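Quick review question:
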């Protein structure tokens, strides 16, 4: 069996925000009797430092 999981996070603020800091941990972990064939993390707009 192959699972395709999609997740979307949208932030909305009551006032305009010039910048914000977030930490994301969204990489699938292999577990017993399951393996990760691949994953993609897309962030839009692209982050800047």
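Suggested answer, residue by residue:
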């Amino acid at each position: 069996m192959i699972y395709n999981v999609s997740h979307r996070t949208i932030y909305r603020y009551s006032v305009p925000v010039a910048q914000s800091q977030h930490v994301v941990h969204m990489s699938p972990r292999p577990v017993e009797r399951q393996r990760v064939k691949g994953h993609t993390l897309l962030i839009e707009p692209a982050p800047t430092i």
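Why it works: The mean pLDDT is 87. The radius of gyration is 15 Å.
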